[in-house]
Design goal:
The structure is a homotetramer of 354-residue chains. By secondary structure, chain A is an alpha/beta fold. The first copy, chain A, folds into two domains: 6-159 and 302-350, Medium-chain alcohol dehydrogenases, catalytic domain (Quinone Oxidoreductase, Chain A, domain 1, Alpha-Beta Complex); 161-298, Rossmann fold (3-Layer(aba) Sandwich). Helix content of chain A is 26%, strand content 27%. In chain A, helix 8 links the parallel strand 14 and strand 15 (265-273). In chain A, helix 4 crosses helix 10. Chain A starts with 5 loop residues before the first strand and ends with a strand. The relative contact order of chain A is 0.16. Chains in contact: A-B, A-C, A-D, B-C, B-D, C-D. Strand 16 of chain C pairs antiparallel with strand 16 of chain D, so a sheet runs across the interface. Bound molecules: zinc ion (8 copies).
Chain lengths: 354, 354, 354, 354
């Protein structure tokens, strides 16, 4: 492979110092350890998690200096010497997700819980991520991308898509059951609407404004609730669902999203918590959680199989990410906009147009 | 059946008025509706829930005047005319539990969630309970008591036993997994230790004092933690279990029991919430619930099958309730002691010695 | 209710005597036991099971004389005096399915397995069925029919629909998984294709002939295999599914359908056996069942909740039964045609046009 | 490590040629590939599977020449250069089981089904096994042996123990449920009795003769049936269990064991098929499998986590293998005896006393 010695990356020098484009060395193919691969990236999504990584406001701290990013797609250009039985090959197009590496040997891994591996490595958090042109990743954990799915379309499936897909998959609902999706018009939400419909669930989309209403209904939502104009959201959900929803996938950072779900869920309903707010607590009534027999699942991104399935469903055409394409050098602006809540949908950065 | 016109009952005249022994009419066999049965009670347990019923401090209010109690055992002396296909017969010894009646026809019932039936009746809360000598109950929902289990030994199995049995049964743990039982020496806890051991779980018993230590270890607990002397409970659990417990059954009313469990549970651990505090909220970190992939299950007493199983295991001799016998007329004193936290273990009242 | 003293029924006088239209008394409303209801039927499906009932070739024998039929829809015109808490009311339109009555109290019922109730009554087999104008059924077990689903469209959902819906629901497959449906163009099969697609499964439809090919593809099947022209069915399934299907729903009476499924299923695949042949045995290799870790599920019609769900999905318009309407008096001809394998799709009889 | 150039092995030169002790080269530490380890064995169990391997009578053929054996325990003396993140270290005592290697990357592996890995290697079948003194195995797939479990006691847990443990674990039974164990006094059976009791199941042990009766009851079986003297085994099981057993773990090679289980299982019961007969078919009534809603699970040895759990339970003292110790050079005689059905319990060979 014809690999350059240096590349452009977006790097956070130290906690709170902001993100900046810099020249940065590329790890040479000969330096790759067994099990490592070098990926020439095409593009990368930007996720709210990247903002947490840049500001360091989570209770588990990122490394610094840090190259963020965990929704990248590119081609494998080299595989470390001594790698055995690699499931991917040089030349293959693959995706890199939040879970960069799981050991596959600890108790969590043996049980399929790769996200909570005792030896996990997190892209753009504990190892360098996808905000660069040449990324080192791990042959065992990258996700093959089918030919009929474009790189930019695949990027956000690798994090936002996998996250909502897994939450729905483990929501203990069946075909025909009602699922509530707060923030249904957003980055995670609009993917959740599509996965939920693909699985045969009935969807109540909650979000604000005419544009989001149109989007959600176009994606197949069975019922729309505008939180900016609806006075009794709980009451409306109970009416539409004839007694309460079977599940909710809550991606919000604010505790109120969780509290409210306890109220609008049907007895024996399932609250899928997927957001990772820095400090918020659940704040849900213990009495009603027990009395209504509610289950609250912490659902954390997804494992390799979840990623394969989420990508395959997207490749079939059933789920399409709505995204805007920008350039890697735009990342400072993207972070600013994201911090101010000005981003609608997902952003995908072309890493080669710096 | 030779049924008297009046009986002694313990009744709460109005919210907060306290409990008093009174004469009270007995519903005559000829007045029973189809599906109802009249039970001549032998004894009844007293449960913390009865105190909530008497003080009316739960967000869902009891009826008044109220005859409390929901852990009774007695003989069926009459079955309402027109009752079809009764699974129990006159002369049979049966138990009455918190769920006095489920319709068996609503969606919750069809799915086996009888506790959250749309038409549920709660013993000693929305219908008169077991603090009387002649109780009206429902043929479909009483629990047959096997010959080899004494009435007084069965009483608390019907509520405390069923509750912890179901919580363990649905804790998604397997044989050899570690289960933490805060309050292991108490009324629910000492039953939980025994059910957990019967199921092949490894048990960490948490409670305070030498007497409770001896009890828990005698019942088979694998490890004892005295919360009054242990500085780092979370640390000790993690050390003993090699990384955290697989599940915890939390019966406490205080939010701290739930918060602490999130910390000492292993990744993908299960918190079984069975307590029904009046106002407390979960107060658990959303970040760590998601990041550790914890599941929090509201587990609410049990259904008919749970009761049958819990009773059968007790009848086999594998689980024994530790209780003190008192008389129905002692109930005011029992409530006083309970309110002051002075009751150790379960109390069973002989309803015929008034 | 204005109920006539006699009605027309299709009756089998004794085993093997054939089915004949006769005058037959109607059970008067005043004669109904508590829990019974009288239904004025509109129509009834005819099912292969009815032929087994008429010929008496199953190892479990039907009663005689027998009025068959177990896919009926009509209006409740009376409910037995003394019925308590009926979930349905006089005037309501309901369906009657194979499981006419479950006690809701035995161990099987308490676990939700109403089909294997110790006290089960089977429509048109152990109690009189839907080949009549006025049917006695049970308030607890009839299935409410939503307004937006026509009676004739609902009829076959109550047996064929419920059966394949439950088999798919319990097939332990997920969205995107491959399900093979032998006989996909037939009465059960064409409903299975639609339910499977509604649930997000990928479907391989197997059947014979151009007409069935068109039907299956129009219903959404992802791949078609014509068994009359395909030499290597197992090989083709393995190729299309990249290694074998995740599940198969086998409705056939011949052992070869089961044997073949063991071969074309992926490792850890699920064979849903729903057919009830009189004498055939599974005949599957024990070696490969174990070595491939195949699970074979006996899946027997469905319970009340399965019926509610299957009907709701049909009422939403997602699943449509293809049927021909005939008259009750045509039943002898229908049986003849069925015995000769000349029936395509489902037959629904208008019971009022005799 | 001080590794000799040659060792003694028991080898089958070609299909049907019988097993013979030979000198055989040891793979040198410097020749180990990344991910391989060299184990100096202490002992190895002999399993019926080894006899199938030696005679080549299974539909999937072993390699030849073949060194059999798949229940070995020894110390790691070397790990291949370039091995990354090995979960085990040189000097550690480990066990080798039937599944010598799974790729951990294919769909089956990602779902935890390591036994059906697309790239699986089988000890003593497709790669050389434990009938030698120095074995090459794989760091990812060996099972650590706790200090408090002797090597000879661990050996048969690695195959017979894991197999019955997994079958019980996935039998969809709960505490208090009845499990039937045909062959309960045999090599697999006596371990199954102990695991089942540890899990809180009630056990019906079936076998023949006074010695086996004593063994089974001493191990905790709740009921004993002598098949040599009991006329109506099905009837007796139904009587003892009040309607049929919840599950059976069938290890036999003869089809009749499976057929009979369909009869004595309760409705919705589970038949765990773990035997691997060469040619037998299930031969079970399709009608009754469906009508009784029986599930038949092909359960094939176990994965790494099953092995860790089975070994941990044995190390706790709850499960003890009954075995006879012999020498590697006795293997021809052991095979002869096994072929004639003359072996009671498990045989463990000391590989260093040749
Ligand atoms: Zn992300
Ligand atoms: Zn790991
Ligand atoms: Zn209670
Ligand atoms: Zn109900
Ligand atoms: Zn029943
Ligand atoms: Zn039918
Ligand atoms: Zn073996
Ligand atoms: Zn594999």
């Amino acid at each position: 492979a014809n690999v350059p010695a240096t590349q452009k990356v977006a790097i956070v020098a130290s906690e709170g110092s902001g993100v900046h484009i810099k020249d940065h060395p590329v790890k040479l193919p000969s330096q790759l350890a067994p099990g490592e691969c070098l990926i020439k990236l095409h593009c990368t999504g930007v996720c709210h998690t990247d903002l947490h990584a840049a500001t360091g406001d989570w209770p588990v701290k990122p490394m610094t200096p840090l190259i963020g990013g965990h929704e990248g797609v590119g081609d494998i250009v080299a595989i470390g010497e001594g790698t055995i039985n690699s499931p991917v090959q040089v030349g293959q197009r693959v995706g890199v997700k939040w879970i960069a590496y799981s050991c596959l040997n600890c108790e969590q891994c043996r049980k399929g819980y790769e996200q909570t591996c005792a030896n996990v490595k997190l892209s753009g958090y504990t190892v360098d991520g996808t905000f660069q042109q040449y990324l080192v990743s791990y042959t065992n954990c990258v996700t093959p991308i089918p030919d009929n799915l474009e790189s930019a379309a695949a990027a956000s499936i690798l994090c936002a898509g996998v996250t909502v897909y897994r939450a729905l998959k483990y929501s203990e609902t069946g075909a025909g059951d009602w699922v509530v999706l707060p923030g249904a018009g957003g980055g995670l939400g609009h993917l959740a609407v599509q996965y939920a419909k693909y699985m045969g669930r009935r969807v109540i989309a909650i979000d604000g404004g005419e544009e989001k209403r149109k989007l959600c209904l176009a994606l197949g939502a069975d019922h729309w609730i505008d939180y900016t104009t609806t006075k009794d959201i709980v009451g409306e959900i109970k009416k539409v669902t004839n007694g309460g929803a079977h599940a909710a996938v809550v991606t919000t950072a604010s505790p109120s999203g969780y509290t409210q779900a306890i109220d609008y869920l049907r007895q024996n309903g399932h609250l899928m918590a997927v957001g990772l707010p820095s400090t918020a607590t659940l704040d849900a009534s213990i009495f009603f959680t027990v009395f209504k027999s509610i289950t609250i699942h912490g659902s954390y991104v997804g494992n390799r199989q979840d990623a394969v399935e989420a990508i395959e469903i997207a490749a079939s055409g059933a789920v399409k990410c709505h995204y805007q394409t920008k350039k890697l050098k735009d990342i400072e602006q993207v972070y600013d906009d994201m911090a101010k809540g000005k981003i609608a949908g997902r952003i995908v950065l072309d890493v080669n147009d710096v």
